[in-house]
Amino acid sequence: MQLRSDSIAVAISATLVVDLKDATAKVAEIATAIESLRSCNEQVHQMAEQIQASSRRIVEQVQTSENYAGEQREATERVQATLAQLRTGNSEFDRIVDITDDYRKKVATHLEKLAAEGVNVFDQNYQLIPGSNPKRYKTLYDDRCEKSLQADGDAAVAANSRLVYALALDSNGYAPTHNSKFSNPPTGDYAKDLVGTRHKRIFDDLVGLKVARNVEPSLFQTYMRDTGEALGDLSMPVTVNGRRWGAVRVGFDPQVVVGETG
Asked: How many domains does the chain have?
């Protein structure tokens, strides 16, 4: 009986030794895995810091580039605006100025006529047209002036082959209508509608807002249109019964100004 007990004790002891060795091996594996994970985390952390540093540098470089581009554009505009004031009376730019001024007067006349009929031409409670992309909006007056202002804009463009567009927009950059060639029914294709369905949009980019809120007799700018074209833009303020409504703007190749003075 004693021999059997001793045998059992030996067996148990051997089992414990084996289990202890297995446990030690597993603990070592776990420790190795933890160390590997720690090392991996350190590498990920280092990479994240490098990415953040690179991102900061990229943002700084982009900002620097944007600031430089803005400064260059403003400097160019100042030069071109100065040149634009040196009218000779018989240049292509002179003719565009005259067309724009005539267009401004027509738009003001039509809007004053609507105002006299009780139409709120200063309504800025823009109502989004469902499903429009790019977004387009309705107001209390756009249907009443759409045809007349479009005819005025089309006549301005037809008056000079250098003109790309002629439109009127309120003090927030809202254009109740646009030229016929840019007032096509929406197709649902964003790229096509960006170019061909531009009526009733709000042009509130930097250039558009400068046009809409400029108080000088005229403003000449150069800019990259959202369609990718580099254009010159001449605008003049529009007042309705003595109250500032917005402006008219015409677009054309900026070489019209630079080329004739070079």
From this structure: 2
Strand residue runs (E) in 56-215? 127-128, 137-138, 163-170
> What residues make up the domain containing 141?
87-261
- Fill in the amino acid letter for 247: A
* Beta carbons of 112 and 241 less than 8 angstroms apart: yes
**Together in a domain, 144 and 167:** yes
Q: For residues 81 and 232, give the distance between their C-alpha atoms in angstroms, rounded to a whole number.
A: 11
pLDDT in tens, 2-36: 545 555 555 555 555 555 555 566 556 666 766 77
State whether 78 and 91 are in the same domain. no
Determine whether 85 is exposed, middle or buried from the number of CB atoms within 10 Å of its CB (0-12, 13-18, 19+): exposed
Of the candidate ranges 78-92, 131-145, 159-173, 228-242, the one whose mean pLDDT is the lowest:
78-92
What's the whole-model pTM score? 0.68
Last-in-domain residue among 85, 111, 128 = 85
Q: Which residues contact 86 (CB under 8 A, 6 or more apart)?
A: 261
